[in-house]
Design brief:
globular, 5-stranded antiparallel sheet, 10 helices, 308 residues, 11 strands, two-stranded antiparallel sheet
């Protein structure tokens, strides 16, 4: 996960004691987009301490309720701890955080091709879980305000690109299709493949009630990208797996290309806001450009998924 909050070793150990753990070692976990996390060791067990940096994440109690809800529905998710006082979070100095069990397994930067259909099936199973209360705003609800937040910080060309993308993907924002519980950020590094063959899904901070086709498109943006473009073969494999569990409607299939562009457009906005407005950092300031290129890679009207 990204590093947005600096924390000392003494503070890490104090967090551990709040959860009844004697932490002997900690290591910052790189990657991710939302919050700062550390891999910590207590005895022979590993855990993840997550500091709540992202003001747009689900509130922690709602997150714990969601994880329990998903687990009861058969979705493999990390198991959170509670403090010795029964609270889901602890506060140490200026930091608020929570601890969950570390999931042992393999996490890929680029998913192997032979796992794409299986991950598509996982997305479909998530969409089969009834929504619960207190989820984040949908992309269509959150995106306009996010764009308003960043325009004064953006270069003129990017503002023009945002306006153009808003117009190009207007049909997706207004789409009246099947919707329900979604993950909202299913990139490759949010899936752990355990030694016993399970798929454990991480990072539910942006889970919301949204269009299923948008969540599929977000997953394609995060999983089917290759060398800066959306790989049509990888995207098609993921959707083929999804369709084994929940076949797309004809209208969803027809709007999928535009939905992928919409997902990449939204990703460009989130990344610009994160790395240039809320947590300015020259090292990551240009990460939004990757999403711009992904959006443009599917702009051709001839781009479409391959039947499987």
């Amino acid at each position: 996960m990204a590093l947005y909050s600096n924390i000392t070793e003494d503070e890490v150990r104090e967090f551990g004691r709040a959860f009844g753990l004697e932490i002997s070692n900690s290591l910052h976990m790189p990657g991710g987009m939302s919050n700062t996390s550390h891999l910590v060791t207590a005895g022979s067990q590993h855990y993840v301490l997550t500091l709540i940096d992202n003001p747009f994440s689900l509130k922690t109690q709602r997150m714990l309720d969601l994880l329990l809800h998903l687990s009861q529905a058969g979705i493999n998710v990390p198991r959170p701890l509670t403090t010795v006082d029964g609270s889901p979070t602890a506060t140490v100095g200026e930091h608020k955080g929570w601890i969950k069990h570390f999931v042992e397994g393999t996490c890929y930067t680029m998913l192997p091709d032979d796992l794409l259909q299986s991950v598509g099936e996982v997305v479909a199973h998530i969409h089969g879980v009834p929504p619960c209360d207190g989820l984040s705003k949908s992309v269509a609800e959150a995106l306009p305000d996010a764009i308003d937040t960043i325009t004064e910080f953006a270069e003129p060309w990017f503002v023009e690109w945002l306006n153009e993308s808003t117009e190009r993907t207007r049909n997706v924002a207004a789409f009246d299709g099947p919707r329900g519980l979604t993950h909202g950020d299913l990139f490759a590094d949010n899936i752990v493949f355990t030694p016993d063959g399970k798929f454990v899904v991480l990072d539910w901070d942006t889970s919301c009630v949204d269009l299923f086709v948008v969540d599929i498109a977000i997953s394609i943006t995060g999983i089917a990208n290759s060398h800066g473009t959306i790989d049509v073969q990888r995207a098609s494999e993921l959707v083929a797996g999804y369709s084994k569990i929940r076949p797309l409607t004809d209208r969803e299939s027809a709007i999928m290309r535009e939905a992928i562009e919409y997902a990449a457009f939204a990703l460009a906005v989130w990344r610009f806001r994160r790395h240039n407005v809320h947590f300015p950092d020259p090292k990551t300031a240009d990460r939004y450009l990757e999403a711009v290129r992904l959006a443009e890679s599917v702009r051709s009207p001839g781009w479409h998924l391959q039947p499987r």
